[in-house]
Amino acid sequence: MDPRSYLLAACMAHMEGYYSTNTLAFKNNNPGNIEKPGGGFQVYPSKVNGFIALVWDIEANRGKTLRAFIAKYAPPNENNTSLYLQVVSTLSGIGEDEIL
């Protein structure tokens, strides 16, 4: 796996509020707020399991630009996608149009 995937996961967890103990992301051990297929958020048995799931999701999107991945991951109808992209890019050092 690309080491940048772990860095990107940590930056996305920041944007999802994972580092605050009163958020669903923290309570569900789901740093990426990954959704279940039928709706709602996945609940992982441990923080490690949730972090690995986010890294796998990032890895599954290799070949896309960071911009394309974030647009899919944090769509504008649910998020401030441009701010999400800007913060994740700044924190990770991965350019907005850089290929994952």
Reconstruct the topology from this structure:
Layout: H1 3-15, H2 24-27, H3 47-60, H4 66-73, H5 81-92
Task: Please name the defining characteristics of this protein.
100 residues
Structure commentary:
- There is one protein chain.
- The protein has five helices and no strands.
- It has 100 residues and is mainly alpha-helical.
- It has one domain.
- The chain is globular, with a radius of gyration of 13 Å.
- The model has no long low-confidence stretch (mean pLDDT 96).
Short synopsis of the structure:
By secondary structure, this protein is mostly helical.
- Radius of gyration, rounded? 13 Å
- Alpha-carbon distance between the two ends: 11 Å
Alpha plus pi helix count: 5
Roughly how much helix do the residues carry, as a percent range?
40-55%
H/E series, N to C? Answer: HHHHH
Strand content: under 5%
Shape: globular
Low-confidence parts, pLDDT < 50 over ≥5 residues?
none
Q: Which class best fits the helix and strand makeup?
A: mainly alpha
How many domains is the backbone divided into? 1
Return the average pLDDT rounded to an integer.
96
